[in-house]
Amino acid sequence: MEFGVILAGGIGKRMGNAEKPKQYLQVGGKPIIVHTVEKFIVCDEFEQIIVLCPQPWIEHTKNLLKKHIENTDRVVVIEGGETRNETVMNSIRYIEKNYGLDEETIIVTHDAVRPFLTYRIIQDNIKFARKFGACDTVIPATDTIVEAIDNEVISQIPDRSKMYQGQTPQSFNALKLKSLYEALTEEEKEILTDAAKIFVMKGEKVYLVEGETFNIKITYPYDLTVAESLLKGEK
């Protein structure tokens, strides 16, 4: 079985908006999170679409989705975790409790604030996760990447042709991800930035899915302007 997992656990400090987390800000007349859920609903492969958000926002999220989306029968809203990876693990615990986990259980995890993913990207994630067990959506780096270990002086300039910018979805065999995560030490968990790194740290392969330059993450106020322009281009 395949499950869509939409990560809406963040509060969006970089957006500078104290009133509400950024996933609830409006773009094109609808909250960002609604646009994202709509992209998942059109994929019939998903047994269920699991939206994870801060506990105080659960009822608000449910009400928003019911207001803007005609059929939410396959959508459930549950509490996220204290970290990104704990949020992902909460989705796996939910699946295990309600459906059970086996070698065929796939999760497609995606940022709630990336509303411009495509049907093709989702389908490729499902296909690669089924075939390989783990995949990450990326685009080739267009700018030179500079490494500065001390955050002051350049220590290395990697070959740009081998560099990629990570996006989401990231998709996994859920049983494998659960096993790898539970084997991590507390020190290892502290340095994690996303679930794909769990596989890399444990020597497991993560395959690349081709993303899109417009599959942006809405992080800063400027991104809202870009998002409005992209929505106008979709019409």
TrEMBL record:
It comes from the Bacteria. GO terms for molecular function: nucleotidyltransferase activity. The keyword Transferase applies. Keywords: Cell wall biogenesis/degradation, Nucleotidyltransferase, Teichoic acid biosynthesis, Transferase. It is an enzyme of class 2 (transferase). It holds the Pfam family IspD. The keyword Transcription regulation does not apply. PROSITE patterns: ISPD. Signal peptide: none annotated. The record marks R14, K22 as: Transition state stabilizer. CTP binds at L7, A8, G9, G10, G81, E82, T83, R84, N85, E86, T87. Its EC number is 2.7.7.40. The record marks R160, K217 as: Positions ribitol 5-phosphate for the nucleophilic attack. It catalyses: D-ribitol 5-phosphate + CTP + H(+) = CDP-L-ribitol + diphosphate. NCBIfam families: PRK00155.1-3. Belongs to the IspD/TarI cytidylyltransferase family. TarI subfamily. HAMAP family: TarI (MF_02068). Catalyzes the transfer of the cytidylyl group of CTP to D-ribitol 5-phosphate. This is Ribitol-5-phosphate cytidylyltransferase. It comes from Anaerovorax odorimutans.
